């Protein structure tokens, strides 16, 4: 197989991408961590919530081609939990946003911390192979009042 010449049709193709303003933070919604009508005490350690999807797909800012990532969200709620349908719409809003893997992962953390004010939150995204390289980005947040004894 030979390398196509630079003037071959499609060789310099690039798809248009949307900017960061297309990320729909406003669609995110929450519900209370503790039900007001539940008189039973919630005993034990704080709950760990894990949300996983293989359908996170922002696009490459250079080519506009989709990147597919396995997204893992882990958090300990303080007062609010993220509503899943709204989270799905939020994640889908990245579909045409041109953003680097590292920036997308940090943006997810920032938006969810702003929404939830959790005790702890971790975002991990495995973006899979591209050009023989695999990128896995992990970012963490620990609330200030939870940092006693943290390195």
Task: Give the secondary structure arrangement, pairings included.
Blueprint (H helix, E strand, L loop, with lengths): L29 E3 L16 E8 L12 E8 L3 E3 L1 H9 L8 H16 L3 E11 L2 E10 L9
Antiparallel strand pairs: 1-4, 2-3, 3-5, 5-6
Quick summary:
This protein has 151 residues and is α+β, with helices and mostly antiparallel strands. The protein is built from 2 helices and 6 strands; from the N terminus they run ββββααββ. It has a domain at 29-34 and 46-144: GTP cyclohydrolase I, C-terminal domain/NADPH-dependent 7-cyano-7-deazaguanine reductase, N-terminal domain (GTP Cyclohydrolase I, domain 2).
Side-by-side strand order of the widest sheet: 2-3-5-6
Main structural class: alpha+beta
Q: Point out poorly predicted stretches.
A: none
- DSSP strand tally: 6
Spell out the helices and strands N to C: EEEEHHEE
Q: What is the C-level CATH assignment of the domain at 29-34 and 46-144? A: Alpha Beta
User: How much β-strand is present in the residues?
Assistant: 25-35%
CATH architecture of the domain at 29-34 and 46-144: 2-Layer Sandwich
CATH topology of the domain at 29-34 and 46-144: GTP Cyclohydrolase I, domain 2
Name the shape in a single word.
Answer: elongated
Q: Ends: how far apart?
A: 53 Å
Contiguous helical run count: 2
The radius of gyration over CA amounts to 19 Å
Can you give the mean pLDDT?
90
For the record, what is the CATH homologous superfamily label of the domain at 29-34 and 46-144? Answer: GTP cyclohydrolase I, C-terminal domain/NADPH-dependent 7-cyano-7-deazaguanine reductase, N-terminal domain
**What is the helix content?**
10-25%
The description of the largest β-sheet is: 4 strands, antiparallel
GO molecular function, one term: preQ1 synthase activity
Family: Belongs to the GTP cyclohydrolase I family. QueF type 1 subfamily.
Function: Catalyzes the NADPH-dependent reduction of 7-cyano-7-deazaguanine (preQ0) to 7-aminomethyl-7-deazaguanine (preQ1).
Pfam families: QueF
